[in-house]
Amino acid sequence: MSEGSLRKRNGAGTKSDATKGKSAGNPTDAKQSVGQEATSGGSSTIVYFVVLLVSATFGALVYKDPSIVKGPLYEFLGFEEDPFSPPTPQGFAADLLKRDAVRDAFKHAWLAYERDAMGWDEYHPISHKGTNLTEAGGIGYTVIDSIDTMLIMGLDEEYQRARKWVEEKMDFDRDGNFNTFETTIRVLGGLLSAYALTKDKLYVDKAVDLADRILPAFDTPAGLPLSSVNLAQRKGISSADNNGLVSTAEISTLQLEFRYLSYLTENEEYWDAVEKVMATIKKSSLTNGLASIFMNPEDGRFVLSAIRLGSRGDSYYEYLLKQYLQTNMTEPVYQDMYNFAMDAVHAHLISKSQFTKMTYTSELVPERDRMGQISWRLTPKQDHLVCFFGGSLMLGATTSGAQVHPVSVPPLPKELTKTGKRDWEVGEELIETCMRTHETATGLSPEIAHFRIPSDGLVGSSISQDWYIKGAALGQPAPYDARYILRPETVESLFIAYRLTGDAKYRRYGWDIFQAIEKHCRIETGGYASVINVDALPVEHEDKMETFLMSETLKYLYLLFEDDSVIPLSEYVFNTEAHPVPIINPHRRASFS
Ligand code: DMJ
After folding, report:
1. What is the domain extent for residue 498?
2. Which residue of 122, 145, 379, 403 lies most exposed, with the fewest beta carbons within 10 A?
3. At 417, which CATH number?
4. Which pLDDT value is given to residue 457?
5. pLDDT digits (tens, 9 = 90+) for 137-158
6. Total Cβ atoms within 10 A of residue 453
7. Marked catalytic residue, from 363, 447, 562, 577
């Protein structure tokens, strides 16, 4: 494994970008120019001593109470922002103790899985066993989802054993139905990222084998891939549960993976398949810019269904931005689609809570009255899944919403467009809201949070805060909404926000979450388990360790505490399962606009 491939090339890491950025308002530079002016005016010793005395007195006063001058001073010095106020990036050096604590946690998870269930798709840490997604046998779901985290963490021995398993045991010739989206983001994405970080041909060969088995799922009249695919029969399978409809997030979250594979292999078929999906979505887009969560693979149209940033909607928005980033900001069509979607989200889905004015996202649920008239009900419900969106908005603000590239760290207001500023602010606020949902008995956030609205009938109830877990009642079984299943979305946003601001508070938040996971999800005999009710102590566990703990949650936490030259955001884009793939200069242009 070459560390060089993980770190920013040519030595110009985000750290130096940050330094470069800061120089726009760098106090050191400013002091130098002030000093030069003072001395260039005259050579007299008296003048020199008077200036020195005044400066020293002034300096002492300011040292004691910087607030007396800092506003006027920084304006006088020509700074756009207050250089004396936090957040001040302290450099992006690793916090070694915390970083290594996260690495130990990963080892605790991986070694238990390896001991009890190596090669099985999923792991159950309490019963110490593995299960597969289908009766047909495993496809390396957990192994592949974890490999790039080992590479990033420098876990060489674990990595070598995992690679050996991929080489000798992994088999996609399984006669069972696998979810097209999950198989792509976890397994294809994991293989591609392992290749990107090692340049080991084994991973591309495996990726090609898998992608060729998934491709037939795209063979529908509108080109929208079916929900499942039989990997051995190479056949798309439509979803019986959803009347053959496909989920918007699922069909629009395959693009980074297939496009990168096409770039590597020069096989245009992969690129064409996923681009056609985007062309169909663009053609069908609703006039208000919103996207409902189901589409029809027969005619390529959106189907009347909920509109939200949570399940079945989430990564549609994520990949609009990331497709623009993956193609090195050269494809205006993805930027247009992203901007159109963001305007719609701000206009219709962003809400403020009743009492403390927390920013959150609502859902629009269609309702049909007796006359067949449709109206939309704004529901104050936010999935934990939505917590990716704060970081995503901030990333969008500094790229799609930026006037200069790269922007400073943190960006200066003048560097952002009007919509960039809007997205940056709302992104920061959404992260704060997600952190508020960690104010539970365990410090873990629930799967779904509801926010108080005047019509909720809870006036005078014991719910004193702005948000609550619906259906939770003392002495009653915990509702589904109360679970924490080791999800990554909040720490994903914290990682991005830290890289874009250098604000130490994001590391503090991440450390709090990590400690809550350690305290309540860690199984002493090995592994981590989901918690059934985040608001009840002692916790009750569900015997399952989701694969995204090792692919996403622990990776983002590790990178939050790692120095910022590792997987720099200027060179990589993370797929929705946190597998980094390189930003590419595309060899072709989008065939639609
Ligand atoms: C992951 O599999 C992916 O992030 C996906 O986009 C939705 N969420 C889960 C983890 O919560």
Report:
1. 66-582
2. 403
3. 1.50.10.10
4. 77
5. 999 999 999 999 999 999 999 9
6. 16
7. 447
